[in-house]
Design goal:
single chain; Acetylcholine Binding Protein, Chain: A; 37% helix; rod-shaped
Length: 465
């Protein structure tokens, strides 16, 4: 004998005093129960909605993703419009064979056993509705209960943006039971079903490709059944190549044009380099502000910083050239003065004027040379000392060239200073020797950087796919 006492009492709430007041859904549900009674869809008296239908009950899950309606990179959330269907066999319900299925009221789910489905990464879930909520409960003639829901769900996804914009985000959606073990309930994917289609409709702007679904099965360590749906999100690189990589590369190439400009044209060359440098700094600030946060430097930030360094080195090279030109002009003037002084000293040595108050510490010795003695004197007169004081003779003067090897500077610091002087003289050469070398060296270094950059980051991105 079948009874409806338990279902009816489940839909009645205590009013006031000792009377019972039906809720607003009582009449509708009661009429549906009477209808089910006529159709032989009835609940036995010994039915317990808190106990699964049997040991190792299999719950089939199907997800049809309509579209990815939003991706919040800062919060690490993905919003999906999905159709979720959960089905299981309920042999305790006696179902007639004269009808393939019957649609039950959505409220009727409270009267039968339903799996305690839990989505680990779920943040929010909202059932869609137009004229009524998109939720249905269907009972098939073979005893299968099917629950279908159309909802918008927000999933929490752990994202890593170190490889941005070459990053590939793997987002897992785990469906499991929070109280039943694998001995009681198991969750599996329904691979073949008329209502299940893993195709995708729509896309999220132009930043992400349509997510590719890789369905895997997993059992967590706490012996609770879990079915995992994995979503992979990869970016469309075309926009990043056109908006960031290509302009920054052109700025670096334009900076090489400064090597072809005559160093004496300071305004033109400085404007070119400074404008290029400021443009790259502005681009870096814009990209850093609009891109998601990461614990390390992102891939695109490494690129922009490197391009900025290349332009800065070109500007620094120009400073060295300007300093060398200025040093070269001053040194040429000093070199001419020293050569004239050395020539005059060799042709007409200064005469010695010794008064009576000067005292000779050594006897006058020497040999007659044309009737004139060349004495070795130790003179105490200050004016005479200043006249014979040592003058710094540069290495390129004839005097330096005629000095014996023992008299040349052997000091290490003097040698280093000589090398630096020659380097500065080379940088300031009027023929632009340093500019010619930089015009070859900078492009080679930039090409080498491109090879290392793209090889490293593309290989890391391929490992995450």
């Amino acid at each position: 004998m079948w009874t409806f006492l338990i279902p009816i009492l489940a839909l009645v709430e205590l009013g006031g005093g000792a009377t019972f007041a039906p809720n607003k859904e009582l009449l509708e549900c009661a009429s549906q129960i009477l209808y089910m009674d006529q159709q032989m869809y009835q609940i036995p008296t010994n039915y317990n909605r808190n106990i699964p239908p049997g040991k190792n009950t299999t719950v089939y899950i199907g997800v049809n993703v309509n579209r990815v309606s939003g991706v919040d990179e800062n919060k690490g959330e993905i919003t999906l419009d999905v159709f979720l269907q959960v089905s299981w066999e309920e042999k305790r319900l006696h179902v007639p064979k004269n009808s393939p299925f019957i649609d039950l009221p959505w409220e009727y789910r409270q009267l039968i056993w339903t799996p305690d489905l839990y989505i680990w990464q779920l943040q929010t879930m909202k059932i869609l509705s137009v004229l009524q909520e998109m939720a249905s409960l269907r009972l098939y003639s073979n005893g299968t209960v099917s629950v279908s829901i159309g909802a918008t769900i927000t999933i929490k996804c752990e994202m890593d943006f170190v490889l941005y914009p070459l990053d590939v985000q793997n987002c897992d959606i785990d469906f499991s039971s929070y109280k039943y073990t694998t001995q009681d309930v198991r969750f599996e994917w329904r691979e073949v079903a008329p209502w299940l289609g893993l195709g995708l409709v729509g896309e999220h702007r132009n930043q992400y490709r349509l997510p590719k679904y890789v369905v895997t099965f997993a059992t967590d360590k706490s012996e609770h059944s879990a079915a995992r749906l994995q979503i992979k999100l990869s970016r469309e690189l075309r926009s990043y190549l056109l908006e960031s990589y290509l302009p920054s590369s052109l700025f670096v190439i334009i900076s090489w044009g400064s090597f072809c400009v005559i160093p004496e044209i300071v305004p033109g060359r400085m404007v070119l380099l400074v404008t290029t440098l400021l443009s790259l700094v502005t681009m870096f600030d814009t990209v850093s502000t609009n891109s998601p946060d990461a614990l390390e430097l992102k891939c695109i930030e490494v690129w922009l910083i490197s391009c900025t360094i290349f332009v800065f080195l070109a500007l620094l090279e120009y400073f060295v050239v300007l300093f060398g030109i200025r040093y070269d002009k001053n040194w040429s003037r000093r070199r001419q003065d020293l050569r004239r002084a050395a020539s005059a000293a060799q042709l007409a040595p200064p005469p010695l004027h010794i008064n009576h108050t000067q005292r000779l510490s050594t006897p006058v010795t020497g040999t007659p040379q044309g009737g004139v003695f060349s004495p070795q004197l130790s003179v105490e007169d200050e004016g005479l000392k200043q006249q014979f004081s040592h003058q710094t003779i540069q290495r390129d003067s004839p005097i330096f060239d005629t000095m014996p090897p023992g008299d040349r500077p052997a000091n290490f610091m003097a040698r280093v200073a000589a090398v630096v002087d020659r380097g500065v003289m080379f940088c300031g050469a009027q023929h632009g020797a340093l500019d010619r070398i930089a015009l070859i060296l900078f492009p080679l270094c930039f090409c080498l950087f491109n090879i290392i950059y793209w090889t490293t980051y593309l290989s890391e991105a391929a490992q995450n796919k």
